[in-house]
Specification:
mainly alpha, elongated, 21 helices, 325 residues
Length: 325
């Protein structure tokens, strides 16, 4: 009987909000058709508690429907029924990241990208972050063909989205895709990420700065010099201190990849600039990562400069900076 279960076959929910949960889910695990219908019905309820409860049981419904029908019916239904309640969106974004087994395994992980792409453009930050986290979790099990066919267009759409929400989420997807595509597509990904680093909106540049560390860890040594350093430099010289402070972690990642001579040639001035930044929040980040920077930079002249910087940070006017060294 459970095989005949359909989302749309469940009786419609009542017209007004219910005072509390109205659905009995206890028999759902056994495949009881009434309980399964209750899950489907609750998904369309006007009551938030009911909808949240139905999400918790969604795996049971998926098992009853089977992998094929989950892919063809349940996932499209979830995509089309995306709610405007942040609590529900967050729960759904987390759930979809662990839903691969119910759609047929990693070879079908791509079917989960579309609802997660929509969630990655949500207004609430925590929802977007969870959606990006779930997409990256899916990517780890996807093969090159599916990454290129489904994820890359997803990244392109998010990167070119009209609203800042989608573009900020896009920045968190480049690193996971980068190592799974051809050189030609990697080149396009670098160009796309560079556009985010130069975006007119500070929140997009913040997202680009925040995720640059992960990108640096995936690119080749040559591209650390030709791609990462120019974009790091631009972000480190941004007029918003909320952007500049996020460049310290990418700086640590970059110095780890460079030779002594490359550090001296490309980073000397900008490191010094961040260390004496007018914003105490930027100086705090430098102080907090000072040991890692000093360890990675081998050049004697730069190390001597860093020693002077350390002394300066220890006498900084802000207690938070002094305490971070």
């Amino acid at each position: 009987m459970a095989e005949q279960m359909s989302i749309d076959s469940a009786p419609p929910a009542g017209g007004g909000p219910s005072p509390g949960p109205r659905y009995d889910f206890e028999d759902a695990q056994s495949g009881d058709l009434g309980a399964l219908a209750a899950i489907a019905d609750a998904m369309k309820s006007d009551n938030l508690t009911d909808r949240l409860e139905s999400l918790k049981r969604l795996s049971v419904l998926a098992l009853a429907m089977g992998e094929e029908r989950t892919r063809e019916e349940l996932i499209p239904f979830l995509d089309e029924s995306i709610d405007d309640e942040d609590e529900l969106l967050l729960a759904l974004a987390e759930l979809l990241g662990d839903f691969v087994q119910y759609v047929g395994g990693p070879k079908y992980a791509y079917v989960l990208l579309r609802p997660l792409e929509n969630l990655a453009a949500a207004e609430e930050t925590v929802v977007r972050e969870k959606a990006v986290e779930s997409i990256n979790k899916l990517v780890s099990g996807m093969d090159q063909l599916h990454v290129e066919e489904y994820l890359i267009p997803c990244i392109a759409r998010l990167s070119s989205g009209e609203w800042f929400t989608s573009r900020s989420s896009a920045a968190g997807l480049y690193a996971s895709a980068y190592g799974k595509v051809t050189d030609a597509i990697q080149s396009k990904l670098r160009a796309g990420y560079e556009a985010l680093c130069k975006d007119d909106m500070p929140m997009i540049r913040r997202a680009a700065a925040s995720n640059l560390k992960d990108v640096v860890e995936k690119i080749s040594d040559d591209h650390v010099v030709s791609f990462a350093i120019p974009n790091f430099r631009q972000l480190a010289e941004d007029d918003q201190d909320s952007v500049r402070l996020l460049t310290v972690e990418p700086l640590v990642a970059i110095t780890k990849r460079l030779t002594t001579e490359e550090c001296k040639q490309h980073l000397g001035a900008i490191v010094q600039s961040l260390c004496v930044d007018k914003s105490w929040r930027v100086r705090y980040m430098v102080a907090d990562h000072f040991v890692s920077l000093a360890t990675n930079i081998k050049d004697a002249d730069l190390q001597e400069e860093l020693l002077n910087v350390a002394i300066s940070l220890m006498h900084d006017s802000e207690a938070e900076v002094r305490g971070a060294v």
